[in-house]
Predict the structure.
Amino acid sequence: MATILVIGEVTADGGLARISAEVATLARSVAEQAQGSVSGIVVATDPTAAAAELAGYLPAVTAIADPHAADQVAPQRVASAVLEATSTADYVLIGASPDGRDVAGILSALLGRGVLVNAVGVDWDDGPVVEMSAFGGKLITRSRFSGGTGIVTVRPNVVSAEPAAAAGTVTKASADAGADLPAVTVVDRVAEASAAAPIEEARIIVAGGRGVGSPDGFRIVEDLAEALGGAVGASRAAVDSGWIPYSQQIGQTGKIVKPKLYLALGISGAIQHKVGMQTAETIVAVNRDPDAPIAEFADLVVVGDLFAVGPAILAELRSRSG
């Protein structure tokens, strides 16, 4: 009987990262197909809140309190603390976040296990079959582990987090010696000053591309996002031009998002951008070029100048809220 372990990631405020809820949902589905068992593990200075959240998705969660987690870089501490648990699990699933990728790499080196990265889906066929997107989404590969065990990192926003029918149990534990990894001390933390929700979690995104033309051109993008209660996104062209921070970039080399509404202004929709937003429930594009690539997959395309269409949409939204 296969055993699957989910490594939960903790946010700065002590809660469970959304990607971990998504991974737990996927792992639970795979375990059901395999008729195996699935559990979770969380490591933090105080893992109580995150472990309780993860138990909403998994039948059993271990909460490991690590007093050094606050002043040392997370991947080393997490990998060290979960080493024993991962060594006895057949398969390990973790989110493909920056920290998640680092943890997977460390565990791979310590355990001698293979890693399948950026999974967009996992099924079971006498072992996990992992779907991965390659060449900017032009090719979907299906791979499995030849050694019978392995580690999978799961791309954000490819699974909708769904709580289990009943909450699981949480077992508390303390961090043991684990692996003898070099300590990497945190000397400073810098938080971006922003009242907006993380773009990966936004239900509505208004994004601007090369067609916006300038930093001032993003004003209409920001105004529409505010009117809709959404977040501001951008294509790589806009980020590379210095019009908007990298943290707002959506696409192959940026964020993967899955909003209910994606409003694209002046974005051509090249494959590199498409892979970051194609799972949006509804895609609306405003572009002067009726043959732009985004017209092939958008639900609605408005052919016109975004600086004429955008203000008209904004005026209509404000008239309805007035």
Q: What stands out?
A: The chain has a mean pLDDT of 91. The two ends are 60 Å apart (CA to CA). The chain has two domains: 3-174, 199-321. The longest helix spans residues 18-34.
